[in-house]
Write the structure tokens for this entry.
Amino acid sequence: MKAAEVLGALLAELWAGYKARVPYAAQYEKMAREKGGAVHNDHIAFRTFNCAVGTQPAGVIGISRIFEALGYERKDQYDFTEKKLTAWHFEHKTNPDSPKIFISQLEVDKLPAEGQAIIKDAVKNAHDPLTSTDLELLSALQGGEEIDEHTAQTLTESLVDFFARHWDIPARKAVEEANKHSQYAAWTLLHGNSVNHFTAWINKQNVSAWPDIEATVEALKAAGIPMKKEYEGEKGSKLRQSSTEAVMEKVEVRESDGSIGKIEWSYAYYELAERGLVDGKEFSGFLGPQATNLFEMTKT
């Protein structure tokens, strides 16, 4: 199997796991297919910390190394100064239909000293679940080599396992204190490398009854799916976005007495993106101010 096939298997597994946690996405998929349409994801987003994270590479590199090995290349950078975030998006080198990858990192050292200490202490013992064998296989795929089906399946399982939290269960107090400095920090402490969101590519859904993002949003609202109240981007602009509300989950935390409890926290929303044309080509990037507002959809 080549890199493209391993990528396809990985994305399918991530999408299946995400739908199980975000039923709004599964409902959108069912509705679109019932109307003869198709589901294409525009992009997938991830969050991470730009600081020492145990044996896992710090910041965006920890995640991007996987996608770059499977055919992606880094494109534009986005700076969110107020939120102390930096992000990049990645596009597949040869397959424009492959979802873009959007990875952001919290610049931990720009937080107040108390916030820095909370995060660095919580993630200091993280382990990198990718073994040397996994990394060697990724390197081989990146170099154009093929691997056998059994090896590819084992590698895919390792890659899927990577997209979770790989540090100890965070303390309730650490999550609550981190949230005062950055809701992004609290979310990432709880969910680690998990998918932050998938995004419906409205341009490719091919549902005649939903010719644009507005019609799609109205259909989802009519089906009882709670939606973001405002759109990001003007009608007819190069990027217009909306999303469902984020689902809530009960996530494990360590209580002050050392026992394991549960805290209710946001997990993910399902985003929708409609892309306009720039110089006759579909706009493939992202717009900082719009992304800033979408970050807020996981605020707890």
Residues 3-21 form the longest helix (19 residues). The chain has a mean pLDDT of 96. The CA atoms of residues 232 and 290 lie 6 Å apart. The radius of gyration is 19 Å.
